[in-house]
Design goal:
- This protein has a domain of 139 residues: P-loop containing nucleotide triphosphate hydrolases (Rossmann fold), CATH 3.40.50.
- It is an alpha/beta fold.
- The longest helix is centred in the middle third of the chain and has 18 residues.
- The chain is globular, with a radius of gyration of 19 Å.
- Bound molecules: adenosine-5'-triphosphate.
- The site of adenosine-5'-triphosphate (ATP) has 11 residues, from strand 2 and helix 1.
């Protein structure tokens, strides 16, 4: 999918102007950027909730899943019913497997108010996977959770993605989440929203730890980008440049493997 030259104003506020980004199929694209730069607006455009003033989305998906900061479960339905409701013909074993994968076995008959925030968010993610969307949008889904729990959720999402290999766009403020999950990390600037850097990490998600050399280097590049420092030289700059020359109008500054 290509977000092609998108522009969007809210009254006098120019959030996006000529914004361009390719979302690669079957990858996790993590989007990092300052508050108010337009991350949710981008997701809303991909999902069709918001219409761009100009530009187009090429390769638009029909079946899109969306996980928000809050779980949005139906309080009068059990955990299992909340998951089942998104797909009429789902086989019971699919739901059972998903519930087990997100660590909620034995809570099938619990109602949302009987679960912790982390458990409810696990249920929301299981529901999104049960829907089997062509593209899954996630807008800071772990925001309200503490660090340990967030890292558990990241691990769970790595496992789900390794199994399903679906296309995910994951918005976050947390660098660690982006480093552990992103096939590509898109660093945005604001006023208007533009792509500052694209960092590609080749190490499979399931094998990553935050102390790996490539993740440490990626963290430095991201922090430099966020604090406007000069970009560091990257060992794989040549292949990154090749990608730019052959590819779209991204600023792929670094390709780490
Ligand atoms: N429907 C709307 N009407 C008016 N202004 C809006 C609307 N939606 C978003 N905005 C404004 O557009 C800008 C971008 O908002 P958006 O929510 O996309 O940013 P964000 O990067 O997701 O922010 P955060 O990281 O704080 O969640 C903000 O200044 C916001 O106030």
């Amino acid at each position: 999918m290509i977000l092609k030259n998108l522009s969007k104003c809210f009254a006098d506020l120019k959030v996006l102007e000529d914004f361009h980004l390719e979302i690669k199929e079957k990858e996790i694209t993590c989007i990092l950027g300052p508050s108010g730069c337009g991350k949710s607006t981008l997701l809303n455009m991909i999902s069709g909730i918001t219409t761009p003033d100009q530009g187009e989305i090429v390769g638009k998906k029909e079946r899109i899943g969306y996980v928000f900061q809050e779980d949005r479960l139906l309080p009068w339905k059990t955990l299992e019913e909340n998951i089942r409701m998104v797909k009429k013909k789902g086989h019971p074993s699919e739901i059972r497997d998903l519930i087990e994968m997100v660590g909620l076995k034995n809570f099938e008959k619990s109602y949302p108010h009987q679960l912790s925030g982390g458990m409810r968010q696990r249920c929301a993610i299981a529901r999104a996977y049960h829907y089997q969307s062509e593209m899954l949008l996630m807008d800071e889904p772990f925001k309200s959770l503490d660090y340990d729990l967030r890292m558990n959720m990241v691990k769970m999402l790595q496992d789900l993605w390794t199994k399903w290999g679906n296309t995910v766009v994951f918005v976050t403020h947390e660098i660690d989440e982006a480093l552990l999950l992103g096939s590509r990390i898109i660093l945005l600037r604001k006023n208007p929203c533009t792509v500052d850097q694209v960092i590609e990490i080749k190490t499979p998600q399931s094998q990553r730890t935050l102390t790996d050399n490539d993740l440490v280097r990626a963290r430095e590049i991201i922090i430099d980008g966020m604090t406007n420092k000069k970009k560091r030289t990257c060992h794989h700059e040549k292949s990154a440049n090749d990608r730019i020359n052959n590819g779209i109008n991204d600023k792929l500054l670094c390709c780490l493997q």
